[in-house]
Amino acid sequence: MRQDILWKGLLEWLFEDMLRFVFPDADRVFNLQAPMDFMDKELAQICAQPGGHSLVRFVDKLVKVKLKKQPGKYALIHMEIQGRTKVKDRPMFGERMFRYFNLIFAKHQHRYPIASIAIFTGEDGHLLIKSYAYSFMTTRLPFQYSTININALSDEELSSSKNPFAWVLFIAKQAMLRGSDREVQLLEKKWIMFQKLYDHGLLKDQKLQAILNFMEHYLPFEDKKTNRIFKKWTDQLTHKTNIMDIFEQIEEMKKEEGKQEARKKIVRKLLAGTKFSDEKIASFTEVPVHQVARFRKRLQAKAK
């Protein structure tokens, strides 16, 4: 569950990079500079079962992305991060991906094209089903979705990539390190990634700071001595007296994210309970006018 929480927080920072990693033509198809709509609550509602139970796992994502060459048109991306799976659940993975797709398609019909993505981060990724097929009599239904198995990608391929999402996969892959020299290997791998992040502007780029935060919590050292060595190296590279200076910046970033979420809640309450204009609500809450307008459209759509 701890790793799920880390993935959930990171995906909103790197979703466009993830699309570029999975789809080589992503920049041609999607407008990745436009705001993306993360529809986590809607996904939970779509997949709700009798009794209030939902099929949705913590790191399942449904994201509405603007299409580049079709003004006003959007696509839906359903994404799942799948770690190690129980043996009995492995054969059912493809069916679960199909059920998600089917429920999303039934809800939105032909309004949006839908793409499904599964990223396997566990040691058993090569054993998970990468498609689904149904057949009875003359009825046939093949369902294919995009998959990334981090075990099938080399450390060199991931760490040398220019795509930040590849660096995240490199980090996630190191969680599978085993053996008596694990701490030594982990120190080496984390140092490679820290240098990569630093060279690309870690101290100023919040996305890179989010990746560093992910690495520190996803790949903790077990030995305090190893941790001290790592901090010494990073201090020397950054000319900082203490690596905690960087982590203080990360904490400030997280606090700011919390403030933004609080502002969004206030916006929704003002939209639902007052007749204030978008501009007035924006001035009260310090939320951009275009975001307030977007929230209003959602509320109006739900009211219909």
Keywords, separated by commas or semicolons:
five-stranded mixed sheet, 13% strand, 304 residues, 7 strands, alpha/beta
Q: Can I get a quick summary?
A:
This protein has 304 residues and is of the alpha/beta class. The protein has twelve helices and seven strands.
Describe the overall structure.
This protein has 304 residues and is an alpha/beta fold. Among the domains are: 151 residues; 54 residues, no CATH class. Helices cover 54% and strands 13% of the residues. The strands form 2 sheets. The protein has a 5-stranded mixed β-sheet with strand order 1-2-3-4-7. A two-stranded antiparallel sheet has the order 5-6. Helix 6 packs parallel to helix 8, helix 8 packs across helix 10 and helix 11 packs across helix 12. 26% of the residues are buried. The model has no long low-confidence stretch (mean pLDDT 82).
What is the fold's blueprint, element by element?
Blueprint: H1 2-22, H2 26-29, E1 37-38, H3 40-46, E2 61-66, E3 74-82, H4 93-108, E4 114-120, E5 131-136, E6 139-144, E7 146-149, H5 155-159, H6 164-174, H7 182-199, H8 206-218, H9 224-238, H10 244-273, H11 278-285, H12 289-303
Parallel strand pairs: 3-4, 4-7
Antiparallel strand pairs: 1-2, 2-3, 5-6
